[in-house]
Write a structure and sequence with these properties.
single chain, 185 residues, alpha/beta, Nucleoside Triphosphate Pyrophosphohydrolase, 6-stranded mixed sheet, 41% strand
Length: 185
C-alpha cells in the first residue's frame, strides 16, 4: 500500500485499506474550532481542512484514542472524561496516496483554553502531508466550507449547534471524497 502502514490500515473483505478512528471537535474559550489543513502528496494541488484525530490502536476505546491523537498532533492533554459524545459516527471513503481507503470515525466534542500547538508527536506521513493547524471562527469556517473542502462536510453547521452544548443526538454520516457525496441519517 502506497504510504499507508498495513498494520494501521488492514485490508477489508472488499480489498480496501480500512481502519477505525477517533477525532476531536475542539473548541477554544472563544468558541473557535481547531482544524488541520492537509494535502495529498500525490495530488499536492488538492487541500482540505479536517478535525484532529487518527487511528484507534489495539486495546483503546474511541475516547482514549481521540485523547492520544489530540496530544500527539497538538500537544494538548485531555482525559477521556473531558470528551462529550460521541456526537458523530462517520463512514468515510476517500482517495489518498493514490489509493481508495475507508475509515470509520467516532467524533467527540471538547473545550480547552487556547495554547501554543506543537507537532512533536507527528509521524513522518503527518509531517509530509499536514500543512498547518488553525483555530477557526465558526462563521469564517462556514464561508471556507462554501469554497473549499472541510471534513466532515457539514462540520461548520454542526459546530455552530454544539459550541454551547450538545443536544445528545448522534449523527451518522456516510461520505465519499472520491465521488464527492455524503448522506446524513
Amino acid at each position: 500500500m502506497s504510504g499507508l502502514d498495513e498494520n494501521e490500515w488492514p485490508v477489508d473483505a472488499d480489498g480496501y485499506p480500512h481502519r477505525q478512528a477517533a477525532r476531536v471537535i475542539l473548541f477554544d474559550e472563544n468558541g473557535r474550532l481547531l482544524l488541520a489543513k492537509g494535502h495529498d502528496r500525490d495530488q499536492p494541488e488538492r487541500q482540505w481542512w479536517f478535525t484532529i484525530g487518527g487511528g484507534i490502536m489495539e486495546g483503546e476505546n474511541p475516547a482514549e484514542a481521540a485523547c492520544r491523537e489530540l496530544f500527539e498532533e497538538t500537544g494538548i492533554v485531555l482525559e477521556p472524561d473531558a470528551l462529550v459524545g460521541p456526537v458523530i459516527y462517520r463512514e468515510a471513503t476517500f482517495d489518498f496516496l493514490s489509493i481508495t481507503a475507508k475509515q470509520d470515525e467516532w467524533f467527540f466534542i471538547a473545550h480547552t483554553q487556547r495554547v501554543t500547538l506543537n507537532n512533536d508527536g507527528w509521524t513522518d506521513l503527518e509531517r509530509d502531508v499536514i500543512d498547518e493547524q488553525r483555530w477557526w471562527d465558526l462563521d469564517e469556517l462556514a464561508q471556507r466550507a462554501l469554497n473549499g473542502e472541510v471534513y466532515p462536510l457539514n462540520l461548520a453547521n454542526l459546530a455552530q449547534s454544539w459550541v454551547n452544548g450538545w443536544d445528545g443526538q448522534l449523527h451518522r454520516i456516510r461520505e465519499s471524497s472520491a465521488c464527492q457525496g455524503s448522506a446524513e441519517e
